[in-house]
Fold this sequence. Notes:
Blueprint: H1 15-18, E1 34-38, E2 60-65, H2 72-80, H3 86-90, E3 94-99, E4 101-104, E5 119-121, E6 124-126, E7 131-134
Amino acid sequence: xxxxxxSPADLSDDTFDQLxxxxxxxxDYHDYLMVTAVNTPYVDSQLRAAPGAHLADxxxxxxxxxxxxxxxxxxxxxxxxxSSGKAFMASDxxxxxxxxxxxxxxxxRDDGPDRGxxxxxxxxxxxxxxxxxxxxxxxxxxxxLPADH
Length: 149
């Protein structure tokens, strides 16, 4: 609803020049320290990064750390406060936004110099190639048995 038609196969080096006005392109900065997208309050069993996130709200919470001033001490503060997520949410170095879709265009591909870059999806290595992620509501139904059975 409103998103331009775009699939992973459509992504190329000049794709961002062709995106519609619904898309925001962050073309000014390319050295990201971390990009995290979640649709639940927790990134993992301990890091509460998006307290307001809900599985059924049709959005992802996108977090980007790209500031060269972000230090190891800043990361340590965030890691030590994982369970509440307050340090993560309060950090001036973490940009936060709700999105329905996003695309990542790595500058360093699998077939070139990667300078230590990598993409991790749910703990698994992911190829350094253009990647498109979109929330698709109603794609899965979850049925659970109550705990008292």
